Amino acid sequence: xxxxxxxxxxxxxxxxxxxxxxxxxxxxxxxxxxxxxxxxxxxxxxxxxxxxxxxxxxxxxxxxxxxxxxxxxxxxxxxxxxxxxxxxxxxxxxxxxxxxxxxxxxxxxxxxxxxxxxxxxxxxxxxxxxxxxxxxxxxxxxxxxxxxxxxxxxxxxxxxxxxxxxxxxxxxxxxxxxxxxxxxxxxxxxxxxxxxxxxxxxxxxxxxxxxxxxxxxxxxxxxxxxxxxxxxxxxxxxxxxxxxxxxxxxxxxxxxxxxxxxxxxxxxxxxxxxxxxxxxxxxxxxxxxxxxxxxxxxxxxxxxxxxxxxxxxxxxxxxxxxxxxxxxxxxxxxxxxxxxxxxxxxxxxxxxxxxxxxxxxxxxxxxxxxxxxxxxxxxxxxxxxxxxxxxxxxxxxxxxxxxxxxxxxxxxxxxxxxxxxxxxxxxxxxxxxxxxxxxxxxxxxxxxxxxxxxxxxxxxxxxxxxxxxxxxxx
Length: 474
Hints:
Distance between the termini: 56 Å
Shape: elongated
Radius of gyration: 28 Å
Largest sheet: 2 strands, antiparallel
Strand order of the largest sheet: 1-2
Number of strands: 4
């Protein structure tokens, strides 16, 4: 086992090893086992940037690249590629050096191999050079079948996931290779939209894996997060035409049009019950965005299914909306989260789009209390009947039949609760936790209202501070 070194000793040892490997390229004076052992030893020193300078030079990158792609031994090639991938990860300036030597083409060719280890290493190398380089992947798409290689690799992975679960579960290398391929797929779909039709051929396999993969706890971790991310851009086109116009739509297969949607919703439901709001901000926002994109082109018979699963049901109106433990109520609470601004916006947009982008339907579905901030910040007209709902003298005729009743029962347009089920006596004193939650929600609503510039309103918290009504706690 190699000794862990640091400082001058580490740098000298790296220089010694790289000198032997560089000389070997010219003289071929090492036997394959010796060469492989040197590369394995070198790899132990490429874990941190400190004291690794000789690896980050043009000579260092070139030596590792030549052993990675010019060797006749696949064992040597893979050992060297592990070192090279670590170098590219640790020091971003080495990525352009690698590009300048012309090795991305050889990495793309290696992706054609039916080898999970080659897939892992070369997908990682190509993924890393999508950052901090001037490399244009168009040549790899046009002349080296990059999109097809990615498609074939994801297809191979999908065959490891069966409905019955009778096959052996994927091993660690399989999962790592899949993760690296999905990361590369997402970046390429993001940066090269011209090649989306070719990349979208991987969508059916990605969906198959996502539907059949065992969901760990917590649920939003690799490779599930990478599967979701990969679909974000692939939901735009398929078979060179918009998905809604495709006869072979992979998101809504004829055998079960709801299977993928139900899986997305199940993962979201699991996530919002497991993670704190601060964690959901980064982890769940892509999944909510995916649901929004899928709903946009969902067939007419699938849209009501999504609306039923994600919007509050009439059975929840026995109390103010957002107070139950359902997924819809949890989404409503996230739509006013003070600590997850991106998720808050994405969830509010999803609920608005599920309401057919109609302000009146939106208020009816979620209550004016949850809808008002989104409508104001997006300069959308607030239904007059919603604001009239605060008047005790209002009748169902004043409010408008569409907004004010559900199944023939009048509802409070602000809270969404059926009016006859509202408590007659004053509500019980809120707990401290409920007070804090309500204060946070109101704070966000006031800040949204201020941001519109429509009215000049002062946040009550800010006003209380100005008036000296807050006392320091010693």
